[in-house]
Amino acid sequence: MRARLVQRPCDLVILDMMMPGEDGLSVLRGLAQSDDPPGVIMLSALSSEVDRVVALEMGADDYVTKPSTPREILARIRSVLRRRNRTAATGTDSAGTIEQGDAPRFHTTYRFAGWTLNCRMRSLQSPGGELVSLTEGSSR
């Protein structure tokens, strides 16, 4: 999957928590570290609140428990893609600044005047390629 995503990025990945070889949270962690990760829906037989919260806190956009119907999964896919498309369409204006009233999505990367702000990694890179230290923010 990783090699495929390098060749052809996608908008959405559906991950099972209990895959053979590597668990879904490990894959999710790897996806979350990329510059512009795809939307992620976790699909799992694990239905405890802890499992759901951990996956969502790690960056999953949604969590679906098995058994589920194809109709529900399709509705959740459409929902995640709608949110991603809406964010992509309104995330920045032509000057590269965030439009008033639009909170940056956690998975978004913004580029402006040579600078790169990666919201997921909470990193800011100068036009010269140097990482700029960011301070902790308050959510008040």
Walk me through this protein's architecture.
The chain is an alpha/beta fold and 140 residues long. It has two domains: 2-90, Rossmann fold (3-Layer(aba) Sandwich), CATH 3.40.50; 94-140, no CATH class. It is built from four helices and seven strands; from the N terminus they run H-E-H-E-H-E-H-E-E-E-E. It has helices at 2-7, 24-32, 49-57, 70-90, and strands at residues 12-16, 39-44, 62-65, 109-112, 115-118, 123-125, 131-132.
Q: Give Rg in angstroms.
A: 17 Å
The CATH class of the largest domain is identified as Alpha Beta
| SSE pattern, N- to C-terminal | HEHEHEHEEEE
Examine the coordinates and then state which fold CATH places here, giving the name of the CATH topology of the largest domain. Answer: Rossmann fold
Give the number of domains: 2
Percentage of residues assigned to helices:
25-40%
- How many distinct beta strands? 7
Global structural class:
alpha/beta
Unreliable segments of 5+ consecutive residues: 92-106
Q: Give the overall average pLDDT.
A: 79
- State the major sheet: 4 strands, antiparallel
State the helix count: 4
Which percent band covers the strand fraction? 15-25%
Q: Within the largest sheet, what's the order of strands?
A: 4-5-6-7
Coarse shape: elongated
